[in-house]
Amino acid sequence: SSGFVRTYPGTGSQDNCDPDYDPRLRSWYASAAAAPRNVVFVIDRSGSMSGTRWSLTREAVNAAIDTLTHLDYAGIVVFADRGNTRSHGNLMLKMNEEGRTELKDFLSGILPTGQTNFEAGFELAFELIDRSRDATLSGGGDASNECH
């Protein structure tokens, strides 16, 4: 078969390419490829997540946060047993630079502990979604009341 492939704009020698570069992980790609999103990360932080599992989970969530744009809203719920289940705050945050940093800082301060209680995590996640939706509809006092 014959043919050719053209890359525009040209990238020059393939030897200079960063093997870790993936445009799908860039916010400019994500904002062009998807509509504005409301995202709640529901994360198991029970004792079984300690060690490599926890570091890989944090790395994956941080990478996902980096793909969110200023049009998106997000929150984090970490769960274990009822006493160790909590969310970042009462409302989802706008994913500008400040919001992304705030969620990453929250996650970096969490350590695995306790038993797994999925019910507590999902209850809190749905409460976070409901509060954020209600604040948006009523024009409540957080950044979440902006049109999106």
Layout of strands and helices, then pairs:
Elements: H1 27-33, E1 38-44, H2 52-66, E2 73-79, E3 86-87, E4 93-94, H3 97-108, H4 118-138
Parallel strand pairs: 1-2
Antiparallel strand pairs: 2-3, 2-4
Helix pairs in contact: 2-3
Explain this structure.
By secondary structure, the protein is an alpha+beta fold. Helices cover 37% and strands 12% of the residues. It is built from 4 helices and 4 strands, in the order αβαβββαα. The chain has helices at residues 27-33, 52-66, 97-108, 118-138, and strands at residues 38-44, 73-79, 86-87, 93-94. The protein is globular.
Give a quick rundown of the structure.
This protein has helices spanning 27-33, 52-66, 97-108, 118-138; strands spanning 38-44, 73-79, 86-87, 93-94. The protein is of the alpha+beta class. Helix 2 (52-66) runs antiparallel to helix 3 (97-108).
Order of helices and strands: HEHEEEHH
What level of helicity do the residues show?
A: 25-40%
How many DSSP E strands?
A: 4
How big is the Rg? 19 Å
Number of helices, where a helix is a run of at least 4 consecutive DSSP H or I residues: 4
Q: What is the 3D form?
A: globular
Strand residue content: 5-15%
Structural class of the helix and strand makeup? alpha+beta
Indicate the mean pLDDT: 83
Name the poorly predicted regions. Answer: 143-148
Describe the main β-sheet briefly: 4 strands, mixed
Tell me the distance between the termini.
Answer: 48 Å
